[in-house]
Specification:
Layout (H helix, E strand, L loop, with lengths): L2 H16 L6 H8 L3 H7 L3 H24 L4 H17 L6 H4 L1 H20 L7 H17 L5 H12 L12
């Protein structure tokens, strides 16, 4: 694995333990198995590392959705993206950032919400595409803030938000 990616992966681990406010570059370097000078060659400051980490997470999300929807069309494509959102949120094991440093997470929502909404809106069509994308985004955020152990219910709520009918042909239950 490339050094910068190891550092970014290590940043994720350290963030869930310490939060942004207590993030230590020494802890990140140790977690990544690199020296502090090596870390500073890639990221000159804590702010630069956090910015790079935010871009890294966004790219990971975008690439994951792209892989999930590759070769699919229509509703199957949208449904695969929704399933990815559920899987992506559930892939974070242990403590989540919202549990460690809720203020920092809530302040980042102003940056994250428009990105999530625009990514979903690209997969939707029709006059209510923007509204459906906004609703699904808010459902996803609410499941992040108040985590549910029921992935099927989460997926059903996302499907309902964007108007995907269940396999039986009826709309998902509310």
């Amino acid at each position: 694995m490339h050094t910068s990616r190891r550092i970014l992966e290590a940043t994720s681990e350290v963030l869930v333990r310490s939060g942004i406010g207590k993030l230590s570059l020494s802890d990140v370097a140790a977690q990544a198995g690199v020296s502090r000078p090596t870390l500073y060659r890639w990221f000159a400051s804590k702010e630069e590392l956090i910015d790079a980490f935010s871009r890294y997470e966004t790219d990971k999300f975008d690439n994951g959705i792209a892989d999930a929807i590759a070769g699919l069309r229509g509703t199957a494509r949208l449904d695969a993206a929704l399933q990815f959102i559920v899987d992506f949120q559930r892939s974070y094991s242990g403590v989540r950032m919202i549990d460690v440093e809720p203020e920092a997470v809530l302040s980042r929502f102003t940056w994250v919400l428009p990105i999530m909404r625009s990514r979903l809106e690209r997969l939707l069509s029709g006059p209510d595409a923007s509204l459906a994308a906004a609703t699904a985004t808010r459902v996803a955020v609410s499941h992040y803030v108040v985590r549910s152990d029921d992935a099927d219910e989460f997926l059903a709520q996302l499907r309902h938000a964007v108007g995907i009918r269940s396999r039986s042909g009826s709309r998902p239950a509310r």
